Amino acid sequence: MPHPIDHLLQQPEGKTLEFKRDLSSPRNVLKTLVAFANAAGGCLVIGVGDARQVLGVSDPLDEEARICNLIADGISPRLVPSVELVSVGDRTLLIVEVFPSSARPHYLNSLGPEAGVYVRLGASNRQAGPDWIAETHRATAGQVFDEQPMPELGVDDLDTTAMARVFGPTRTLDEKSLQTLKLLRTEQGRFVPTRGAVLLFGKAREQHFPDAWIQCGRFRGLDKVDIFDQHEVHAHLPDAVEEIELFLKKHAFKTARFGAMRREDVWSIPLTMLREAIINALVHSDYAQRGTPIRVAFFDDRIDIESPGLLLPGMTIDDMKSGVSRIRNPVIARVFRELGLIEQWGSGVRRIFDEATRQGLPAPVIEEIATGVRLRIRLAQQHAPELPPSNTRQESDDDRASLPRLESRLESRLESKLAAKIVLQLGTQPSGKAELARALGHTTVSGELHKQIRRLLDLSLVEMTIPDKPQSRLQRYRLTQTGRQLFDPIEGKTT
């Protein structure tokens, strides 16, 4: 039966494993041990070369004593790992196993409690920033970021109209129920909102949390060199889910699938998986971290969702995949659950992977990056942008000269100048009626604009982005595949 060390030597270095040749660089060794203790624990194996050959350590007993003294003298608070000598053939390895610590943050004494804190990021050690250190101190004290009160604010700083709308008429939102949801707390004899309440429904959320918004981008190709379209989402967090979905749908397409009894519209992107990933990002992001918002990047072959904040101490990516979850923002999670946006804490990531298997897609990829966690969802087919939005491209002289000819051709086909202008505008980006009116130079949404949109819908040249909610305030209109064929210069392609 193989020794457990044989299996360990075959594993790649990562969040919980590192190999060292010797103790010639003691500071790097201590950085690794501190990073393990501050994250999910890990094993440091000393006596292994770069090519994974077993070199062993000279004078094993002396090296064991040396590593113990380095740890005792070089790391605070006190760290007590398991130190073991293991024989492999005629060589001896020194294995230091570190467990997740409740005394974190640990740091190097030589650098101090601010500069000497390290965390594990993949297979490397990263100096922790002040936001991470502050979060760790809160956790050690039993405090949760989004449950903390904001005594400088009052109930009037919450958008109670939006709260009533999203919860619906069946839920009473009195002070008692808001306390139960931990949206309000009593502070010095008065009710004040919690951080979670302001993040969810604050009238001036970004004044207090400048990076609590979502940046959406559509890129040409497979990297971020050429941006095709972008959108910023500043809506209340429960509303942000739908708004992000709308942006993704704007750059996807829909086909009809006919079953035995009914027609089913199928999107070219895995919306079920993406919705779970979006909600996961909104619930688990570290809103105390400064410098980066949540990012949703749509490439030709994939969609990446990046949320700020490293994994909570003790958590690994394998834990996430298996359904283990620790809630960073329990107030936000509780409200999302009450609204039916999540079913069960910790089940979202597992459902994403199960849905990928069901749809025959590659398994999603989760990785820690410098700013937080990225979830990558591969698409079943390539998506190449068709028409560049007018607000992101620079028109050439030929483009400007061809627009009147195109508008004239559309007017002839559609037998309406206004319908032609609507189609031209929707050819650049989906728009609501008010947006269309402004783009066309109208001060209000006229009856004729209503009429022509209905006509284009009846002709299946235009479709609603939210067909099941025709009166939604977020309703937009976009060209169908048939509508896009109107731009074909060859006559007779459409009727």
Q: How are the elements arranged and paired?
A:
Layout: H1 4-9, E1 17-20, H2 26-38, E2 42-46, H3 60-74, E3 75-76, E4 82-88, E5 91-98, E6 107-108, H4 112-115, E7 118-121, E8 124-127, H5 130-140, H6 160-167, H7 175-180, E9 184-187, E10 190-193, H8 195-201, H9 205-208, E11 214-220, E12 226-233, H10 237-250, E13 254-258, E14 263-267, H11 271-284, E15 294-298, E16 302-308, H12 317-321, H13 330-338, H14 348-358, E17 365-369, E18 372-378, H15 397-414, H16 417-426, H17 433-439, H18 447-458, E19 462-464, E20 477-479, H19 481-484
Parallel strand pairs: 1-2, 11-15
Antiparallel strand pairs: 2-5, 3-6, 4-5, 7-8, 9-10, 11-12, 13-14, 15-16, 16-18, 17-18, 19-20
Helix pairs in contact: 10-11, 11-13, 11-14, 15-16
Strand content: 15-25%
CATH class of the largest domain: Alpha Beta
Number of domains: 4
What's the architecture of the largest domain, going by CATH? 2-Layer Sandwich
Counting copies of identical and different chains, the oligomeric state is single chain
Give the helix/strand class: alpha+beta
Number of helices: 19
Q: Quick one: overall form?
A: globular
Helix content: 25-40%
Radius of gyration computed on alpha carbons: 28 Å
Pfam families: Fic-like_C, HATPase_c_4, SLFN_AlbA_2
GO molecular function, one term: helicase activity
Protein name: ATP-dependent DNA helicase
Region (Disordered): 382-402
Plain-language structure description:
By secondary structure, this protein is of the alpha+beta class. It has 4 domains: 4-128, Methyltransferase, Cobalt-precorrin-4 Transmethylase, Domain 2 (2-Layer Sandwich), CATH 3.30.950.30; 145-208, no CATH class; 214-378, Heat Shock Protein 90 (2-Layer Sandwich); 397-487, Arc Repressor Mutant, subunit A. It has helices spanning 4-9, 26-38, 60-74, 112-115, 130-140, 160-167, 175-180, 195-201, 205-208, 237-250, 271-284, 317-321, 330-338, 348-358, 397-414, 417-426, 433-439, 447-458, 481-484; strands at residues 17-20, 42-46, 75-76, 82-88, 91-98, 107-108, 118-121, 124-127, 184-187, 190-193, 214-220, 226-233, 254-258, 263-267, 294-298, 302-308, 365-369, 372-378, 462-464, 477-479. Strands 12-11-15-16-18-17 form a 6-stranded mixed β-sheet, covered by helices on one side. It contains 19 helices and 20 strands. Helices cover 36% and strands 20% of the residues. It is globular, with a radius of gyration of 28 Å.
